[in-house]
Input
Amino acid sequence: MDRVKLFIPLIIFVVLAAMLYWGLGRDPNAMPSALINRPVPTFQLPELGQLKDADDTTLVVTGQTELLDETLFLGQVSLLNVWATWCISCRVEHPYLVDIAETGVRIIGLNYKDEVEAAQQWLAKYGDPYAQTISDPTGGLGLDLGVFGAPETYLIDHLGVIHYKHVGVVDDRVWRTTLQPKYQQLRNALPEAEK
Amino acid sequence: MIVERQQNASVYFLRGRFVSFRKATLLLLLSILCLPVWGLIEVDRLSSPALSERYQYLVAEYRCPKCQNQNLAESDSPISIDLRTEIRRLLEEGASDAQISDYLVARYGEFVLYRPRVQSSTYLLWLAPAVLLVLGLLIVVFIVRRQKRGVSATQTSLSEDEKVALQALLGAAENFQDKTANRQDKTANPSEAKS
Output
């Protein structure tokens, strides 16, 4: 019995060390969304609109006429990407979003607390991966979504229910290891008619 | 308000007497030290002192979602500014503290609460200190009791055989000491003889 007692400090040390080691590997910024398995909040916001080359010489701002709402997400599995021109990481992930959009992934943009014109210029310059872009200059929808910084990417199913939230840049590793498997799973669960 | 008064004071000071450029610069730099006071300016936007008081209390209660460990009052990140604005709006609309808490938790999760709710997932958190305290007290009581019993036990527990054995050991130890002392004398002597 006394021999066993001698090992108590060692056991405590090992348990503590294991816990602390486990804690080292955790991301202190990781915060699960409060909206997982909840529908996208209701909203009514304008489509960002595009810069269109009207007469081959000048760029003219068009759009901002169509009002979008949460029905935007019905019927298809989509990614909702929160971005802004002031967000440096968004610039980093942008080319990758263009790539995955080309493979047929539906990405909806949420232009978060940004200047409309700057955002339109950004899309004209770097390419537009978004099926549609919601313009949210005051950040109201961002607040309802629990956005606390761009970029953030939500995975939303065909019923408009949020399944996953990724905070930070979407790159090849993130897409292949976390987002794509979940995306594919939701796609496979789609009723035949909507595929 | 405090800042305003301070600015008025500095203007009066400047007008009333001749102040060198150096002094004025110093005054300006010193006023930067009062930066935390600027936070109070927001309070004045609320319609009543009672609301201001609740606002001050609430912004210290919630954690900035973007920061590692800062409450909404301390943080200057855009998200904190937005959430403070939102709390002011809710206060003006007559929301209760519980409603504001629900509003924030629905969007940003339990993460924003500095005082986690007592529920099944936080029982460990809330009860651990009390459990550890009781456990510690029990251990102290246990050790003290055992020591008391141990002291009284040694006074009577040596049997005759053990006493003999003890004396034999002590005798052997004395012999050993004498021998080593002799040896030391011998090793010391030759050097004395040389000199």
